Amino acid sequence: MSRVRSKDTGPELTVRRLLHSLGFRFRLHRRDLPGTPDIVLPRHHVAVLVHGCFWHGHDCSLFRMPATRTEFWKAKIDANRHRDAEVRSDLLSEGWRTLCVWECAIRGSARLSSDDLAMQIITFLSERQNEGDIAGHWDTKSRERIDA
Ligand SMILES: [Zn+2]
């Protein structure tokens, strides 16, 4: 299966600029790590994965299953999700915690303010969970945006 790897996408650049402005040191696209993570913060042993909501099958309103060739897309997106889970567990087994920043946290009607995004990133770095996800302000049941 071809890998989903879009370098230097808009959302990734946004996350990089934010990390830079917060004074974090990071490395990009480390091929020696599982899944070639988009961004790693070596000092924190955290890999930041910036995921497009369509390709990675996020349950949010940026994702809509295409009405044509639905079986094809479903298989493809399921494979991507499966691979994402594997990459996270492989990274963890090499000592890297993973923080997934979803596209909907950065663009679309439910996007977070940059202060909010910064706060969520800093919170993850200061805590100890193995995995974190940052997404837009969605109500998970209705998939409507939640007004802050
Ligand atoms: Zn999303």
Task: Characterize the main sheet.
Answer: 5 strands, mixed
CATH architecture designation: 3-Layer(aba) Sandwich
**Count of individual beta strands:** 5
User: CATH superfamily membership, which one?
Assistant: VSR Endonuclease
What number of domains? 1
List the helices and strands and how they pair.
Elements: H1 10-21, E1 27-28, E2 39-41, E3 46-51, H2 70-93, E4 97-102, H3 114-126, E5 131-134
Parallel strand pairs: 3-4, 4-5
Antiparallel strand pairs: 1-2, 2-3
The chain binds zinc ion.
Question: Can you give a write-up of this model?
Answer:
The protein is of the alpha/beta class. It has one domain: 3-Layer(aba) Sandwich (Endonuclease, Chain A), CATH 3.40.960.10. The chain has three helices and five strands. The chain has helices spanning 10-21, 70-93, 114-126; strands at residues 27-28, 39-41, 46-51, 97-102, 131-134. Strands 1-2-3-4-5 form a five-stranded mixed beta sheet, sandwiched between helices. The mean pLDDT is 90. Residues 53, 58, 60, 62, 102-104, 135-136 line the site of zinc ion. Zinc ion binds next to loops.
